[in-house]
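User: What would this chain look like folded?
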Amino acid sequence: MSFGLKNLFTKKKEIPAILSPYGGTLMALEETPDEAFSQKMLGEGFSVDPDRGEAVSPCDGTVSCVFDTGHAIGITGEDGNEYLLHVGIDTVNMGGEGFEPLVKEEEKVKAGQPVLRFDLDLVKAKAPSPVCVLAIGNSTENGVLTLAEKSGSHILPGAKAACYDRKDEEA
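Assistant: Here's the prediction, encoded as structure tokens.
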């Protein structure tokens, strides 16, 4: 018998809320019209059907990658998460047209800081879908990701979009 003593000496791992880089309609990742994202091949996360052409950093961290075509940015968060901000579906085929990264690799960023501007009307015209994704590459280390609001809710850039059910961590 343990009498629950293990719980007295176990602390919860602090995992911060995941902020939305985008404004628009929040969607579960499974609803994303792209198999690589909807089947979570690139990690857990969520999608947003955007209502504006700007993405902000979901965390304090360091820019790890800016795609040549400007449609995606990687950020390594101070929280240990590896974030991929991806604008639209198959927008790599736009060859950078309509995308303006506002940061460079190795640049420090703050949560809510604008990191990318894009021409939303052009993305809607040239891409199969404007839906934007936030994928967390190392998400399996963190537990179960849960949306903060139900799918279909409106969200603002920098607002809490999701959180992890915390895992126990030995003291």
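Residues 1-13 have pLDDT under 50 and may be disordered. If you want, I can go into more detail on any region.
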